[in-house]
Amino acid sequence: MVSAYLQVLEREHFFLTTLSDGESIQWSAPTAADLKYIFVLACEDANWYTIVVSCAAKRIVVFDHLARYHFPVLDILTKHLLSLRIEDCTHFWTTPIQNDIEDSSIFVLSFAESMLDRLESSDECLQAGCGMFLDTDPTISPCHYNLYTAQTDFEIEFSPHHLDKCIQAWRGTHASLVSLGAMDILIDNYQKRQTSAINRVLARVSEQLERPCRARLKKDLMLYDNIIGRTVTGTAVSAAQFLDLQTGDFLICSHAEVVQILATRPLRVPIFIPKTLSGYNNDWGVPKESLEDYLELLRTYATLDAHYLDVDDVNCQPLSKRACDVIDDFQKGDKGPINLLNLQGPAKSPPRCILGPRFSILETVYENYQAGKRLQTLHHDLSASSRFNILGSAGSFSLPHIDHHGVITSVFCEKGEKLWILWPNLGVEDVKKWAETDSDPESAPVGIFLEEGDLLLQPAGTIHAPTSVTDCWMTGTMHWDARDLVTSMRLTELELRYRHTTNEDPAKEFRGKIDTIEALWRGKQGPWPWPEEGVEEFSRLLQSIRGLLAKKRRHRK
């Protein structure tokens, strides 16, 4: 019976958490030792919950299956754990995990061993394990009641000073909101990996400078050596700390917390969602595409635009070459660092924390109507670029730039490692100052380290200079925020005045798209959450942008 229960936990991708001397979080799959005491509790809404208790391992995990309603754990404890004689449950805190995909939730608790001195069970608890009743029809739960054995000589005692002992676990598509104490540990461990990655890149750049290389790579390496030499880990904060203090160089949080943060404000601070909080586990057992698979896909294309860094021309633009030759060069590594930034490939959906009309306007607006007529768009280059793949060989890098047209960028690390160097907390005026001086911002850059399964949300206008620590494949999406379009247009105007600020030309579709957006905003049409104010400023910026685009066309002629 124990082995059957363990199979259920493994199938459901549950992991238990352990605090080791209060210094680090250890993750592990449940074992037979964790099943010393088990209770199944039924709630009034006909959901059932299982509590797995292991005194020796200092673990408690509370989770549910097929939940239709989400009760706070405190409510569950006070209503359904009375037989456990909890003396001070008012000091207990945790947050239910919502999941729109599977309509279920998880509650995670962890307490010190001293809090699990005694435990006792009752027939009421055990009888609740017979099954789950949904719409009056009984459904036998995966954890059948025969698996449980009553214990009669134990009792649980809770103590208020263990609030910060609540730590986080996850299952597939779930991520928990964790206590400040747990986040401190998570952030500390992450920043150690940041420091290691920064040092590795610093050593690699120094080594590259000592080797013979061609003019462009030599010139760019000298510039990048100065950047990486100034790069710091920065101040990482949790969602709770950010909402409290409004400070920090970047946030570390879950998708649910991103939704909470963006509900009342635009994205202004980079947000890092690590694999452990992103729900990256392969729930269905479907093999993930490997880097080798993706390279073989690219090999089937006719041509690829590749940035070869080790060349003589210091102003060299991407070279269009036969795809099979580019992939050979990438794999052999004998042609120096290579960046491929405009790739076709698997089209990834936007991160679930920024789904919905507010962040879809860049991709969808051209399909709408203007003044009763369908917009005749000749180019879809801007809409198409809203989903992208980038591939960099180990040692490749980009010099500081901003993404064009004031887009919010999400980047997801499919394979490999990336150090995403950026300058956080700069406003449009700071970006303008950087553009005018053509020198790096005075503030120290921050290196955000991305591994497989990690996600970064980058605010519009963020100056960044990423580098591939290993061969690295990333996918991403670009967005406008319908509630922050003025900022996007201010940044677009700036990049048209200072062409060196971005590594991309203006999109051919851009003019028609923004004209349509202006009409839709004025008419309050469509599903997008138009702001009550700002349309006049938006129109003024569009006039300036149209003039700059016309000037650019005349210059080309």
Automatic annotation (TrEMBL):
GO molecular function: cysteine-type peptidase activity; ubiquitin-like protein peptidase activity
Protease recorded as keyword: yes
Domain (Ubiquitin-like protease family profile): residue spans on this chain: 1-115
Superkingdom of origin: Eukaryota
GO biological process: proteolysis
Coiled coil: none
UniProt keyword terms in alphabetical order: Hydrolase, Protease
Family assignment from sequence similarity: Belongs to the peptidase C48 family.
Protein's name in the database: Peptidase C48, SUMO/Sentrin/Ubl1
